[in-house]
Amino acid sequence: MNAKVLLPLAVIVLSTAVAQAQYPAAQPIAVNQDSVAIIANELANISRNVQAMNERLKAIGDKGSTAAATLNDPRQKILMGIQALTGAEQRVIQLQAAQYDLTQRLNDTRGKLSQTELDLRPRNIDRSVAFEGTTETEEFRESRRQKLQSDRTNLSALLVQLQNDLRENTELLRDAQGFATRLRRQYIPLMDREMIEQ
Predict the structure, then answer these.
(1) CATH fold of 3-197
(2) Residue 173 burial (CB < 10 Å; 0-12/13-18/19+)?
(3) Is the entire prediction scored with pTM above 0.90?
(4) Count of beta carbons in the 10 Å neighbourhood of residue 89
(5) Separation in Å, CA 185 to CA 3, 10, 31, 136, 190
(6) For residue 24, how many other CB atoms are within 10 A of its CB?
(7) Tens digit of pLDDT for each residue in 112-152?
(8) What is the pLDDT of residues 63-74, one digit of tens each?
(9) For residues 198 and 194, what is the distance between their CA atoms, to the nearest angstrom?
(10) Cα angle at 38 between 33 and 39, to 5 degrees?
C-alpha cells in the first residue's frame, strides 16, 4: 500500500494517542465535592481533548489536502467519518454545557421560589413591615403580599419552563451521545484496521 496515502490516517491515530497522553483521564474528585463540580471538571477535560483533536485534524487537513485527492473511496469515508465524529463530540460538549447551565438556573430558581414561599407567610410579612415606620401598615402589608404572590407566580412559571428545557436538553444530549458512540464504534475500528494493513 502507498505510504503517502496512509500518512493522514496514521497522523490522526497518533494525534489521538498524543491527545490522550497529554490530557489523561480526570483526576479522582473528592467525595465532598458536589455534582456541579464533577460536571464542570468533566466538561473541561472533554473540551480540552476535543480542542486538541480539532487542532491536529485541521493541521492534517491542511497538510494532506493535496494527498486527499489521491485517497481511494474507503479511506475518504474513514476520514469523513472521523470528521463527523469530531463534530458529534463537539455537539455533545455544547449540550453538556447547556445541561450544566440549565441545572444551575433551575436550582437558583428553586431557591428563590422557596424563599418567596417563606416570605409569604403572614408572620414574615408582618415582620417585614414592622420597621417601615408608616401609618398605613395594612396597605403596606397588602402591597408586600401582592408583590410576593406575583414573584411566586413568575418563579413558578420560570421553574416549569426550565424543567421542560432541561428535559428536552437531556433527550438531545442522550441522542447526541448515542450518535457519537455509534460513529466511534463504526470508524475507529476501520481506522485501526487500515493502520494494521499498512
Answers:
(1) Helix Hairpins (1.10.287)
(2) middle
(3) no
(4) 22
(5) 25, 18, 33, 72, 9
(6) 8
(7) 999 999 998 988 887 777 666 666 778 888 888 899 999 99
(8) 555 444 445 667
(9) 6
(10) 145
Backbone angles phi, psi at 189, to 5 degrees: -65, -35
In the chain, the N- to C-terminal Cα span, in Å, equals 6
Greatest alpha-carbon pair distance for the chain in Å reads 95
- Cell numbers describing residue 165: 428545557
For residue 151, the one-letter residue type is D
Whose grid coordinates read 397588602?
Answer: 142
List the chain domain ranges.
3-197
The cell for 171 is 433527550
**Residue written as cell 485534524?**
57
Distance CA 72, CA 69 (A): 8
Query: What is the identity of the amino acid at 161?
Result: Q
**Separation CA 183–CA 178 (nearest Å):** 9
The length of the chain in residues reads 198
Angstrom distance (rounded) from CA 125 to CA 82: 61
